[in-house]
Design a protein that fits this description.
OB fold (Dihydrolipoamide Acetyltransferase, E2P); mainly beta; five-stranded mixed beta barrel; 2 domains
Amino acid sequence: MDYTDGFFQEIMFQNGNVLRIDNALIEEVYKTNQRTGYVLISYGIEDRTNRINNDFLRLNVGKDTIIMNQFGETLCLCDLAEGITVDAEFSSAMTRSIPPQTRAFRIIANTEAPTVMVKTDRVVNTDEENGFLTTGNPYDINDQMIFTISGETIIIDQNYNQISLNEIQPGQLVRVEHAIFQTLSIPPKARLFLFSFFKQGKKGL
């Protein structure tokens, strides 16, 4: 494929030396480690007879390549897989091999909507009897969040040992994985899945 012909602008967007393809399909992922390797993508291109053909491009992934999902969450090369669609930004300098190869600057994977959010904050108080954990600013209710704890909630320390809620003290720094859905109350409430804390307590990390 001659990337200088009239079809070039129909499938790619160019900004200086950076090219972009949207909604390409991952055909293969090769990893030398979690940060380097390559991604082979395919994309539809219309020929002179108005037929849509698949073309291929190998994106070489290096340590400086940004990999993320459409929600802005950072991913690694190991999170990419065959069948995922991506928006890719890459160098306009390509090899003449089949398929052509180029350096990938940014790969945005179109993944499913996240069901879990992660938050790191200070403990305001705990209520073991009713199964609540409150985090945030102890002096501002508008800057707090309440997490509901069920029998399925996992509570661990920084050594991955399971502990009980009554071992957590106000002021300790905790990391929580919770449901993306939140109530409209003040403070908002969300279901807590995984909860870990750091022994450094009030001094932080």
